Amino acid sequence: EEDSPSPFLRLQEKKKQVQLMQKALEVKEEDFRERMKDITCRWKDLHSKEAQLKTYMEKSGRTLKENDKMRIQALKKASKEREKKMQKESELLRAKGELEALRNKHQKLCNRVQKYSIFNKYLEDVVKISQFEEIQEIIWRYKTLVRVHKDLLQSQQRHKEMSEQAKVLLDRYTEEKEAEILQYENELVQLRLRFDQAQSDILSWEARWVDIQNTTAKKTQQLGTIKLAILNLFQ
Q: What is the pLDDT of residues 166-210, one digit of tens each?
């Protein structure tokens, strides 16, 4: 107890600590108020500068909008002129391509005419020595013969397909009938076996029937004898 401090001393120590903490808190609060004053001043300056900047931006914005409008109009005009120029160049290139294609086609036609001129001379000679009066009649006759030949080939192909189908159907029908015949033969064999078994059973049953009749006759005779004996006894 002598070594431990008294409650009074501990209380005084705690009060000192509380006073020190209170002073430190007051110092911090004063510092905080000073900082808030400084921040408030800076905030007012910032609002003032923001208002000035907003006014300047509005003026600059109107100027920029006018400049952008003029620039956009100039760009649109230049773009339209560029598109017109590109369209004309594209049309010119397309026209050049079409012209070149027509020239190539014309050259090919000329080559074909030159190549087939010998056939025209041949057809003219054929007209002279044949019953035809014009080359076009020969061409029509040739087309008719080609069409008839094509129709004959198609008809032949159809007949061939129908024949193949008929053959397939005939083979299938033959297979089905052969299977039915085989089934009927098996059934006939089974029926014959059953018939033989029935005949064997008939003979057996006939023998049993004869035995039954014999036994019945014996029993009837015995019954008659018994009745007669009973009648004699009764009398």
A: 899 999 999 999 999 999 999 999 998 988 888 888 888 888 888
**CA pair distance 49, 196, nearest whole angstrom:** 130
**By the 8 A CB rule, do 124 and 136 touch?**
no
The angle formed by the CA atoms of residues 84, 86 and 88, to the nearest 5 degrees, is 70
Question: In which residue are the tokens 């009649």 written?
Answer: 137
AA identity, residue 207: A
Length of the chain measured in residues: 235
What is the pTM for the complete model shown?
A: 0.30
pLDDT digits (tens, 9 = 90+) for 30-43: 888 888 888 888 88
Q: Which two tokens stand for residue 229?
A: 């004996």
Helices (H), the chain: 7-129, 135-234
- Token pair belonging to 151: 């129709």
Q: Is the torsion defined by CA of 55, 60, 63, 69 positive or negative? A: negative
Q: What is the rounded distance in angstroms from the CA atom of residue 232 to the CA atom of residue 44?
A: 162
